[in-house]
Amino acid sequence: MKKTITLFALLISISLAAQQQIKQIDSIVNSKLTSNDPGLFVGIVQDGKIVYENYKGLASLQHQVKIDEKSRSNIASTAKQFTALCILKLSIENKLSLEDDIRKYLPEFYPKVNEDIKIRHLLNHTSGIRDFYDLMSIQQNPWWSQEGLDNDDAIALLEKQEDLAFKPGSRYMYSNSGYTLLTKIVAIVSEMSFHDYSKNLFEEFGMQHTTFLKNYMHVIPNQALPYSDWGDGKWQQYPMITNLYGDGFLFTTLKDQLIFEQAIQNAQKSNNQLLIQSQKPIQNSKITTYGFGLEFGKRLNYDAIHHSGGTGSYHSQTIRIPSQKLSVFVMSNNSNLWSGAIADEVAKILLPKKDVKETYDDRLTDISNNTQQNQLIGQYLSPNEYLIRIESKDGKLTWRNGNNNPIELTKEQPNVYAISYNTKLKIGFLSDQLILFYPSGKANVYSKMPEEEVTLSDLESFEGSYYSTELDVEFSIRLSENNTLMVALHGWNNEQELEVLNRNELLVFDYIMKVERDQFNRVISILLTTNRVLNNKFIKKTNLKFQPKISTENGSINVTTIGSKNGESSQILLTKNYENGNEIWSQQFGGKSYDKASSIINTKDGGYLIIGSTSSYGNGNYDVYVVKVDKKGKKQWNNSYGDFYNEYGYTAELTETGYLIKGTKQNCSSNTDVLNRTCTTNAWFINIDKEGNEISNKVLEEIKEAYN
Prior knowledge:
The chain is α+β, with helices and mostly antiparallel strands. The protein is 20% helix and 36% strand.
């Protein structure tokens, strides 16, 4: 009898505790919105059973329709797990392999990429394929503005891409493109439309009211419409006029999602290998933080499987804590809320409290030097080319990435700072590194970039038009009268000022522009990075100049090519000019034929070295031509370098023994058969001493582009 009473008392205690938790969760939901706001759906599955459902708010503000268990909302990227399930199912059935190169099914994609782009790379965002949403943003044609935009349109844009952001499998970069391509692979392999194949899968799980978007004009029964408050206190319906699917755009009910969470929790009992495998990282991948449309990591101090989604005013969050057999699912059609934060609040009530010890990386305690604050200022780069800047504002250090607002740093001890909004994040400075320390023990290392002087010649070298064949987009850079770089892009109302981070990196808005140079130090392209698009190449189409000008204290030294009156010869003209462009003095160099100037550099003795090409002197049609002059332009020596075919000189560098001349060298299969011979042009570097005598020369890789 005593045991029975004790057990009865325990059950009452558990029941009361559960009721108290329900009241707390109800309180959370009620605090987020009123009954007249756009809606919120919250559900909980524990120990394989649905233990909580709450519906609050409206599905339609126009008609004052309340959300309920029949209401369908868009869960955005949380839907990726279901696209991944379609692929995993086909894999388990041996209809495809996760190790297959995607070009087995999409042969027209990336013909220039030699590495395998595997299906598993698409699943866990390691393919290097750029996000098509961000590509469209660069085109100034955002996805949400394109009426009827569908997967075929997105895939057509991806098909135009010639290269990848990085080597497949080498790193993680979230990209919706992978999941859009997966829908195409599902359709090809299954010989069914993706919508039909996924519908069958949903029906297997008993999810009768779940479907991917097919046409935004189709009526979705009991649809919860999306609403945003743009800051003026007035609700407006967010326009959704696209027909995308697979990466998101899944309309579902809370009940269907909870049925699915039950299936996940009961998968071991039913030995459902599809669901069991779907909750694990992908085999053979070094990326273990993302799997089959799901993230893995710590959440609320527990090992968790989770994913969030947001599209327009729709958003959702799934959190699974396997050790507690707990799942929390939240979705909403109200942009003033955020499902992720609400899901965390709810889960926190249900999870046993954990005392978590902060375990910083040991290197944090090793930082003992006391470098001056102004020496910490600079630019730092991660191994994944993530750039941050440490700056000073009102005597305090700030942290800034991209074009975002600076975040103040709080000094805790010599060379150790905390980020103001989260003091648990520590930043330690070493002589040439910055380390970001997390309380979990994780540490990210950034290397300090050496400071580079940006000269006027550098600024001038950026000028020109740049074009991306992959996006059919062009932008132009010009140097203003006050020596400020300005950039113009079709679709912008006005030119924008370019911030010069260093000699090889520029910044405008959140666009980081990395400069690429050829063997002759000319700017030939810019790699544009923004959000989920890395290193998108824009080729320079104009102003492919070498260095024809050197800035001086009161003006400049300029070198150029001038032609004769009858066009039968040309000469090299060297001028010294005032700042206003008026000439101080001039000198001419060359012979009776054609002589061309490419660039000029300062020499250690205060004079100048002119680099160009000549047909007046030398052994062939054109030879590399170098002229050494003193500071007043008087010739000290000149020399030519080359053989029978064409050699052109472009640039030079100072060396310990003299100069390194950089140019091109031509070689042909025949000296006489001009019509049928084949010729190649290679980069050609010549080492000469201070008097112009050749020490050595080296032929480098073949040049595909004409440089003369």
